[in-house]
Amino acid sequence: MKAQRLLLGWVAAGLVAWAAVAAENPPAPKQDAPPKLSVLRCGRLLDVRTGSLKEGALVVVRGDRIEGVLDRGAKIPEGAAVIDLSAYTVLPGLVDAHTHTFLQPGDYDVQLLKQSLPRRTLQAAAQARALLLAGFTTIRDLETEGAMYGDADLRDAIADGIVPGPRMQVATRAISTTGNYALLGYAHEVTVPKGVQIADGPWEIRKAVREQIQNGADWLKFYGDYRTFTPTGEILDLRVTMTQEEMDALVDEAGRRHRPVSAHCYSDDAARQEIITERDTPNGRLLHLARPITVRTEACLTCHSTAENAPPALTRTYGTVNGFGWHLNETIGAQILSVPMALPLKVARDAFVTSLIILVLIFTLVVVVVNLLMHFLVVTPIKRVSALADAVSLGQEDVEPYIKPGKDEVSSLSISFNRMRESLKHAMEMIK
Ligand code: HEC
User: Fold this and answer.
1) Three-class SS string for 60-118?
2) Do residues 400 and 431 touch, judged by C-beta distance below 8 A?
3) How far is the CA of 88 from the centre of ligand 1 (A)?
4) Which part of the chain is CATH 2.30.40.10?
């Protein structure tokens, strides 16, 4: 099986796995020392791509990379340290993409007001250890809720082998705007800590992004909306926190430093705006587009109102559970697209070239038509009148008269000229 760039951190149930991982974890080997070779002898190995369990598989790990998976009984590479997990089922490390290691169950205000940052950091370290033991080898920790940049420190302490925990990507403080994330109910003259960094306007927001990146943020997180509740738990107020200009500034500033952005949204309102961004990534520039899918016409409800009203063929194939109970004007999902920037640029270029060709064709056609009209309506009749004038002025009397039919200027010229020719003819006869 070819080497996989999967993260090291296969987890067996319980502490044996933790010991195995911890053994791999401590101080990274020096650059010039050959990477350590180990083999995990699994009781059973879950292959997540097929969903099947492989009995007795051997996972070969070189340094911090999984090099391959061998079948039961395969020859163990020479010099490999064997970690015996044959009493366990082994699965790849889990990823939790939304954790708050710095937030504990219980009263939010107490944590921000009464617990020191060192205490909160120690609790976060205990959380990180618990997450690792539960099988999570990578987490994305989405803000410290008032504990400043502690998550970046925890991430680095884990990476340095000081405390056990999963690999962390951290968002540090998160960003919202004035009035949209605060401890509530305190006298306005009392300054209390905030769960996020507050910034207003594009430049303050850019500065907050720069500060957070400087202090270790791998991700930027912002609050797309904010809600307050009544004492009985109903939503009292739900609002979008930032203008489009503020969000654009945030995403742009993060993108300039190659940091992805995560948006916290509860409401339709915040999610309902179409968001278009361009980002530089290691694989080139990408265009991201997210737009809401809203039930705009009654026609959608013929299939999506209730399962009873839906065409039987539909429920036969797709069941009666999902895709029903929608209402008119309800936003029921989002369409999210990511494409290499080269694609829209090519489409735009093609469209430009096509419209240019169409313009040139139209222009050519107009020139041809105008020329033809000039030829038939003006140039040819004037030529005939001028030939006639020539002949008459040279004394030729028997030339054919020419009158151009119609009411235009050339026709009236031909009529006047004919009249002059007749008058000249009479005058000449009178002289004779
Ligand atoms: C003739 C029946 C019918 C009508 C009318 C209809 N849908 Fe659907 N819709 C389906 C079926 C069947 C599926 C599930 C199959 C699939 O995902 O392709 C589906 C799936 C969806 C999904 C989920 C797609 C996904 O990728 O998971 C969305 C969103 C959706 N419809 C929105 C709409 C909207 C908005 C309208 C009105 C403009 C609409 N539908 C009208 C039959 C219908």
Assistant:
1) EEECCEEEEEECCCCCCCCCCEEEEEEEEEEECCEEEEEECCCCCCCCHHHHHHHCCHH
2) no
3) 44
4) 11-92
Pocket of ligand 1 contains residue 82 by CB under 6 Å: no
Q: Which residue's C-alpha comes closest to atom 36 of ligand 1?
A: 300
Token representation of residue 314: 């539909």
Which regions of the chain carry the CATH code 3.20.20.140?
A: 95-286
Q: Which atom of ligand 1 is nearest to the CA of 299?
A: 5
Ligand 1 pocket, 304 CB below 6 A?
Answer: yes
Nearest CA to ligand 1 atom 15: 318
Range 356-431 has CATH code 3.30.540.10: no
Spatial distance between the Cα atoms of 59 and 70, rounded to a whole number of angstroms: 6
Q: Please give the sequence-ordered ranges of beta strands (E in DSSP) within 301-384, or none if there are none.
A: 331-340
Q: Structurally, what CATH architecture does the domain formed by 95-286 represent?
A: Alpha-Beta Barrel (3.20)
Q: pLDDT truncated to tens, each residue of the chain (432 aa)?
A: 333 333 333 433 333 334 344 444 444 545 567 889 999 999 999 998 888 999 999 999 999 899 999 999 899 989 999 999 999 999 999 999 999 999 999 999 999 999 999 999 999 999 999 999 999 999 999 999 999 999 999 999 999 999 999 999 999 999 999 999 989 889 999 999 999 999 999 999 999 999 999 999 999 999 988 888 888 877 777 788 999 899 989 999 998 899 999 989 876 655 566 777 777 777 788 888 888 888 889 999 989 999 888 899 888 989 888 889 898 888 888 788 888 989 989 999 999 999 999 999 999 999 999 999 999 888 998 898 888 888 888 877 777 788 888 888 888 888 888 888 888 888 888 887
Please indicate whether residue 297, judged by its CB atom, sits closer than 6 Å to ligand 1.
yes
Which residues in the chain are classed under CATH 1.10.8.500? 356-431
Q: What is the CATH number assigned to the segment(s) 11-92? A: 2.30.40.10
